[in-house]
Write a structure and sequence with these properties.
single chain; about 180 residues; alpha/beta; Rossmann fold; 6-stranded mixed beta sheet; 4 helices; about 30% helix; globular
């Protein structure tokens, strides 16, 4: 629980990228892999503008941190899309039908950020279709290629935000990147 006033101060960065997943379950570790690759691509002068973090899974404690940003991108693996395919979707905070439990989704974290902290950052999900979630610490070849494509796509989005003041993953749509709305 956050008790001190300073715990709720805005972050220095404008954009939060959260890569989540289990890097010991092959392609499930794609979220942290994308964040690592994006971190390698971004020059150090961008560090005050974008914050990147990785985690095994989404937890309710992240809502306070999310609330201090204007924009957030959740990066994860998906079994719902073909292996190696990328889907980027804009998210809206919708309270209808959301139930808190032991599994937290990006949508539930946005609801918590809005209801507890009064913040509604713009949000997107970036999913990479996974081929395997077997035990192992290596991504499959299709997913490795997708990590590079998505990291470069997000890099262009970050530089676009810095150059134009607009962040829209759709504005740099690549041939292997599907964009849409959830």
């Amino acid at each position: 629980m956050y008790c001190r006033e300073t715990d709720l101060q805005p972050a220095d960065a404008e954009l939060l990228m959260i890569g989540y997943g289990n890097s010991l379950r092959t392609d499930d570790g794609v979220g942290p892999a994308v964040v690592q690759r994006l971190s390698d691509l971004l020059p150090s002068q961008y560090s005050g503008f974008v914050e990147m973090m990785t985690c095994l899974q989404l937890t309710p404690e992240l809502a306070a941190h999310i609330a201090s940003f204007r924009r957030v991108v959740f990066i994860d693996a998906s079994v719902a899309i073909p292996a190696g395919r990328i889907a980027i979707n804009r998210m809206e905070c919708e309270e209808s039908g959301a139930q808190l439990g032991h599994y937290f989704t990006p949508g539930i974290l946005l609801i918590l950020a809005a209801s507890v902290f009064g913040a509604s950052p713009q949000a997107w999900t970036a999913a990479v279709g996974c081929q395997s979630t077997d035990i192992g610490d290596q991504l499959t070849p299709k997913v490795i290629a997708a990590v590079e494509r998505l990291a470069r796509h997000l890099f262009r989005c970050v530089t676009g935000l810095i150059d134009t003041g607009v962040f829209s993953p759709e504005m740099f749509e690549g041939s292997n990147v599907a964009v849409g709305s959830e």
